[in-house]
Write a structure and sequence with these properties.
Blueprint: E1 2-3, E2 9-12, E3 18-21, E4 32-42, E5 48-54, E6 57-60, E7 69-71, E8 75-79, E9 87-97, E10 100-111, E11 117-118, E12 124-127, E13 132-134, E14 137-145, E15 147-149, E16 157-160, E17 166-168, E18 171-173, E19 176-182, E20 188-194, H1 199-203, E21 213-218, H2 220-231, H3 243-249, E22 254-258, E23 267-272, E24 275-278, H4 286-295
Helix pairs in contact: 2-4
Length: 300
């Protein structure tokens, strides 16, 4: 595991990983390095020097850390051999500046990843009840959740579409990883998985939660309902409640969508008694929406 650490930051590694702390020090004109020292402070332990560099000689001091070696002038590299080697590593550089000594220090925490916690030990995938309007297009939202904690570092969740395409989650909201799918939505079974290449999965192979996956079936009627739930009171506030009833009364019924640039969105109007009219939206159902879509030649 390689890193160019930010001072005071943390990285995560598994026992057995090679850890690289690629520190760098900026020297001003005329400054020189007198010596360098590396320290380690484990949980509940005092800070101990583990290596030093004097003149041109790197000296490993810790007898139980045989893999310690110098990396790229100021850095340190070692094989993480046991849980006891998790902790804070620091570099202290004594610099000769204007005939006096000054010290520059760097710190980084090397930690063990923590697995996520899932409520009731059961991962859940679902279609969120409302779609989301993104750049004037409706996006259906799938959620993969029940997370109490996301693990440390936060775990990654990926989705597999019905056709087998792997998709990354869009965001994490209210304990769920969200997948946003633009129209037209592929029907079928979507599954979410905890990504097993993350540090957490590599370090905690025996944790049952890492093997979790969940599935949700998405059908056209579900997509229509999600879009309707989100748009009701906005663009579809004048949508009819009883399309079938109006159609049955007309000798040559015709339906159209208006006030939209998208062929699948807009206010529903029915041509009845030689004029176009907007129908009421009371008790409008998904079945009514499907009838309209089919009359417009849209696939449902």
């Amino acid at each position: 595991m390689s890193s160019s650490p930010v001072n005071g930051s943390g990285i995560y590694a598994c026992v057995g990983d090679t850890v690289t702390l690629g520190w760098s020090i900026s020297l001003a004109t005329g400054e020189t390095v007198n010596d360098m020292e590396w320290f380690f402070e484990g949980s509940g332990q005092s800070s101990q020097m583990i290596a030093t560099f004097v003149g041109s000689q790197f000296v490993r001091i810790a007898p139980n850390r045989p893999s310690l070696k110098l990396f790229n002038i100021y850095g340190l590299q070692f094989d993480l051999q046991a849980q006891q080697e998790y902790g804070t590593y620091s570099l202290h550089v004594n610099i000769i500046r204007n005939n006096s000594l000054a010290r520059d220090s760097k710190y980084i925490y090397v930690g063990s990843p923590e697995p996520p916690s899932i409520q009731n030990q059961q991962l859940r995938a679902r279609l969120l009840p409302e779609a989301k309007l993104v750049s004037q297009d409706w996006h259906v939202q799938l959620g993969c959740g029940n997370f109490q904690t996301r693990g440390e570092p936060p775990f990654t969740v990926v989705w597999k579409s019905p056709s087998g395409i792997i998709i990354s989650s869009s965001e994490f909201v209210d304990n769920e990883y969200i997948l946003s799918i633009s129209n037209p939505v592929e029907e079928g079974t979507y599954s979410c998985h905890l990504m097993n290449s993350d540090p957490t999965a590599r370090c905690v192979q025996t944790n049952a939660s890492l093997q979790f996956s969940a599935e949700v079936d998405v059908e056209a009627k579900d997509v229509l309902l999600a879009i309707y739930n989100a748009s009701c009171g906005h663009e579809m506030e004048d949508v009819a409640s009883s399309i079938a009833e109006h159609i049955s009364r007309a000798s040559s019924p015709t339906v159209r969508l208006v006030n939209s640039t998208k062929p699948w969105r807009g206010r529903v109007e029915v041509f009845y008694n030689n004029q176009w009219g907007t129908v009421c939206d009371d008790n409008f159902t998904v079945s009514d929406a499907i009838v309209v879509c089919r009359m417009l030649g849209l696939q449902v």
